[in-house]
């Protein structure tokens, strides 16, 4: 038979096709090949397409990880590692030896890890495949060992998990050691997520399990993006992720995060895939469990966020926070939990209410761990019961009248809108004996010399009669004089607990005004540390020269501010009026201003924003109606609302505040405040009352609701979008959903509509139509119904 040229070419292509396919999916690494850990990031073996790489990755300054990672995306996400619990240093080496062993040795040539391959003498080569699988193979291209069989915290498309295979979450975002959670298909066929008995790796508590009616045989991650549990006959028992995603267009992985959530991630490979997934980054297709905060209820264990902490679901996953009166044990590992920053309650105290108070947290619970339960109580009686009990740290009150008491440490803390419970968390009113905010506590003066001298003097009875009169004459007056200097502070203003600082004290506290926190039109704020107050962090506000001129006005405003005391106001601690200096010393707010919180990269959740809005309203209510002298703030805006350690809203900057006496009809003539927040009466020669703050609050409330600035440039700065006008138009047209960029916010649209109605009431042009801050607070709390507001003129 005579073959044509075309027949020959077809035959040739047919014969080489299998080998061509193998060559495209693997790049053989020969025996005696090695890589050395170096700081140049070139120590790797890439897959044929370059999408994956195997080699060394430097982890901060801690050492090197022998790992596999996505090699074509900017963050080079790690999907597997050999030595996650034992990092190696520069100069360490991984080698495929002549006898077929894949071995990791440290810089001193000590073996750290090796591939567990019983047939190593048959190994002919290694290969990093385009699937993300690193293999050791024989001459027949049969895999004798593969990384897919030894997963760490991630599985990839085409990978399967067999029975008794475990994924361990890493410890933290930057610590790859085994963490607090594991995912396993057990020998009995059950697929579950467990907490571990950290730092041990053994399983503790199952917080999620697949719903199956048969024995699970394998977890399969197929090429279509489905992740499911299959039985031995291949039938699907339960889906972990049923999303269909093309592996041609998207990188994919399923990773057990350090927060205990198993997530299916996708990442667009090219610009044509971005339309569905903005921005070009890993996006989540499925999460198991959907809300770990609600799923975690351990009988023995620390819960999702550690002891004495609270878990709430944010946009990117669970967020761990400390209640008021508690701080994180380790800022680098928030899941260690929180510790008290106040002293314990004495069981002999007759009036504990002078020393302790309660943080009232709605929709919050600490399941399990109760030591006492009462039924048929009111909230006040439940609170009082916990206050009178020196062992009680938290009381949980239900609308049914059930009251549960918990002692330290408490666990499983969760805040979620679905919970019909209120947590009453006890905290100490005076935390001054504890450090906060990372400020150092000054060391006590060493009295050993004084004790030694005293011992020597008193050791000789014979000379005592001679020395004692001399000591009495020379030493005792000086001791009392020194005591007087230590104990007696500088004078405080009458009726207030404010310290009158010297200028030298201020300079020392601020390290010569070194760390600037912010600058305004009339003052500059610096961070300081009060060595005389156990290293307490403070904000030092130095007024500019033009503000210093009216000394009587300065003292009047300091006097008014110093008499205020409310949890939603920034507390004034002291002042300095030495010479030309006019300085105010405030408590330090660690989480900055509401402006940066609202208008940052990520939108705070609705629950947080709602609590902040209510806190500001309560603070203004106090200024207007509850403090000894009625105060109008005059400049309510996001920059003047600060957030403390617990993101509680605290009104600041009383620099423009003015006192209103009962016989006053107009407190000032010059317009005060900030554009966009200023009430119309400033421009109309109308009396200035507390209603100017109500107007400003209405504008601020709209910004809190929508996380948008009151003025926003549009159409290349040719025009401005005015939030109040837009919100009012959308409210009237029943189109408020158009103001939300985040679909999750739509779930709260009914409550947000109520808040918009409150804001519209507040920004009425006629001051008499605006509600008082007391009514605003009651409307926000749900105590008073919100009626339809009149039209904006």
TrEMBL record:
Q: Which SMART domains match?
A: B_lectin, S_TKc
Q: Topology relative to the membrane, per the entry?
A: Single-pass membrane protein
Q: Which domain of life is it from?
A: Eukaryota
Q: Which family does it belong to?
A: Belongs to the protein kinase superfamily. Ser/Thr protein kinase family.
Q: Does the keyword Disulfide bond apply?
A: yes
Q: What class of enzyme is it?
A: transferase
Catalytically driven reaction(s): L-threonyl-[protein] + ATP = O-phospho-L-threonyl-[protein] + ADP + H(+); L-seryl-[protein] + ATP = O-phospho-L-seryl-[protein] + ADP + H(+)
What main location does UniProt list? membrane
Please state the span of the N-terminal signal peptide per the UniProt entry: 1-23
Under the heading CDD domains, the entry gives: B_lectin (cd00028)
Organism, per UniProt? Prunus mume
| Compartmental location | Membrane
List residues of the Protein kinase domain.
511-784
Give start and end of each Bulb-type lectin domain.
20-149
Keywords for the protein's UniProt record, in alphabetical order: ATP-binding, Disulfide bond, EGF-like domain, Glycoprotein, Kinase, Membrane, Nucleotide-binding, Receptor, Serine/threonine-protein kinase, Signal, Transferase, Transmembrane, Transmembrane helix
Q: Which gene encodes it?
A: LOC103341805
* Listed InterPro entries: Bulb-type_lectin_dom, Bulb-type_lectin_dom_sf, G-type_lectin_kinases/EP1-like, Kinase-like_dom_sf, Prot_kinase_dom, Protein_kinase_ATP_BS, Ser/Thr_kinase_AS, SRK-like_kinase
Protein name, UniProt field: Receptor-like serine/threonine-protein kinase
EC code(s) of this entry = 2.7.11.1
Give residues annotated as binding ATP: 541
């Amino acid at each position: 038979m005579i073959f044509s040229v075309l027949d020959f070419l077809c035959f040739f292509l047919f014969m080489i096709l299998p080998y061509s396919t193998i060559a495209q999916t693997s790049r053989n690494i020969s025996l005696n090949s090695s890589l050395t850990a170096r700081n140049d990031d070139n120590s790797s073996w890439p897959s044929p397409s370059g999408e994956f790489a195997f080699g060394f990755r430097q982890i901060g300054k801690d050492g090197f990880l022998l790992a596999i990672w996505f090699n074509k995306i900017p963050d080079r996400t790690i999907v597997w590692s050999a030595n996650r619990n034992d990092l190696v240093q520069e100069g360490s080496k991984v080698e495929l030896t002549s006898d077929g062993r894949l071995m990791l040795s440290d810089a001193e040539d000590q073996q750290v890890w090796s591939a567990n391959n019983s047939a190593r003498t048959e190994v002919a080569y290694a290969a990093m495949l385009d699937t993300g699988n690193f293999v050791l193979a024989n001459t027949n291209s049969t895999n004798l060992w593969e990384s897919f069989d030894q997963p760490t915290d991630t599985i990839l498309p085409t990978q399967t998990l067999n029975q008794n295979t475990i994924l361990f979450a890493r410890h933290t975002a930057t610590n790859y050691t085994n963490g607090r959670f594991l995912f396993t298909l057990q020998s009995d066929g059950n697929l579950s997520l467990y907490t571990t008995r950290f730092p041990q790796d053994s399983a503790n508590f199952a917080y999620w399990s697949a719903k199956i009616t048969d024995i699970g045989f394998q977890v399969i991650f197929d090429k279509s993006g489905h992740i499911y549990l299959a039985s031995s006959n291949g039938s699907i028992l339960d889906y972990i992720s049923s999303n269909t995603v093309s592996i041609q267009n998207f990188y994919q992985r399923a990773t057990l995060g350090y927060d205990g959530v198993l997530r299916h991630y996708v990442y667009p490979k090219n610009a044509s895939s971005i339309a569905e997934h903005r921005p070009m980054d890993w996006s989540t297709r499925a999460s198991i469990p959907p809300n770990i905060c609600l799923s975690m209820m351990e009988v023995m264990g620390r819960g999702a966020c550690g002891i004495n902490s609270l878990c709430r679901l944010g946009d990117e996953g669970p967020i761990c926070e400390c209640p008021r009166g508690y701080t994180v044990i380790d800022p680098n590992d928030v899941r260690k939990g929180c510790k008290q920053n106040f002293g314990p309650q004495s069981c002999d105290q007759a009036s504990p209410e002078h020393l302790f108070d309660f943080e009232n947290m709605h929709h919050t619970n600490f399941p399990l761990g109760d030591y006492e339960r009462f039924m048929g109580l009111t909230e006040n009686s439940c609170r009082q019961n916990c206050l009178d009990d020196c062992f009680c740290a938290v009381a949980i009150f239900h609308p049914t009248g059930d009251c549960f008491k918990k002692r330290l440490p408490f666990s499983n803390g969760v805040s979620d809108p679905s919970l019909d419970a209120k947590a009453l968390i006890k905290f100490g009113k005076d935390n001054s004996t504890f450090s906060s905010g990372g400020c150092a506590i000054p060391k006590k003066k060493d009295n050993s010399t004084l004790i030694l001298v005293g011992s020597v003097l008193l050791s000789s009875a014979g000379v005592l009669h001679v020395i004692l009169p001399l000591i009495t004459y020379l030493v005792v007056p000086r001791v009392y004089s020194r005591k007087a200097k230590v104990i007696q502070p500088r004078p405080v203003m009458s009726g207030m607990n404010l310290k009158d600082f010297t200028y030298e004290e201020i300079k020392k506290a601020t390290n010569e005004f070194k760390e600037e926190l912010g600058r305004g039109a009339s003052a500059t704020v610096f961070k300081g540390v009060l060595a005389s107050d156990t290293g307490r962090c403070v904000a030092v506000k130095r007024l500019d020269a033009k503000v210093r001129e009216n000394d009587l006005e300065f003292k009047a405003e300091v006097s008014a501010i110093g008499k205020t005391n409310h949890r939603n106001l920034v507390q004034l601690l002291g002042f300095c009026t030495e010479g030309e200096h006019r300085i105010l010393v405030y408590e330090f707010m660690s989480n900055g201003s509401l402006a940066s919180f609202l208008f940052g990269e990520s939108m705070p959740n609705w629950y947080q924003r709602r609590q902040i809005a209510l806190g500001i309203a309560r603070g203004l209510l106090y200024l207007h109606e509850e403090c000894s002298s009625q105060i109008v703030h005059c400049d309510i805006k996001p920059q003047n609302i600060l957030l403390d350690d617990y993101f509680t809203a605290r009104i600041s900057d009383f620099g423009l505040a003015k006192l209103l006496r009962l016989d006053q009809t107009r407190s000032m003539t010059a317009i005060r405040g900030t554009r966009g927040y200023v009430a119309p009466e400033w421009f109309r020669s109308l009396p200035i009352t507390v209603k100017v703050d109500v107007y400003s609050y209405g504008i601020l409330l709209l910004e809190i609701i929508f996380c948008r600035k009151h003025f926003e440039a549009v159409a290349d700065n040719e025009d401005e979008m005015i939030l109040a006008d837009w919100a009012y138009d959308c409210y009237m047209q029943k189109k408020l959903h158009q103001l939300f960029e985040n679909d999750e916010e739509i779930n709260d649209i009914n409550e947000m509509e109520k808040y918009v109605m409150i804001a519209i009431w507040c920004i009425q042009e006629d001051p008499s139509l605006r509600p008082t801050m007391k009514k605003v607070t009651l409307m926000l709390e749900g105590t008073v119904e919100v009626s339809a507001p009149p039209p904006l003129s």
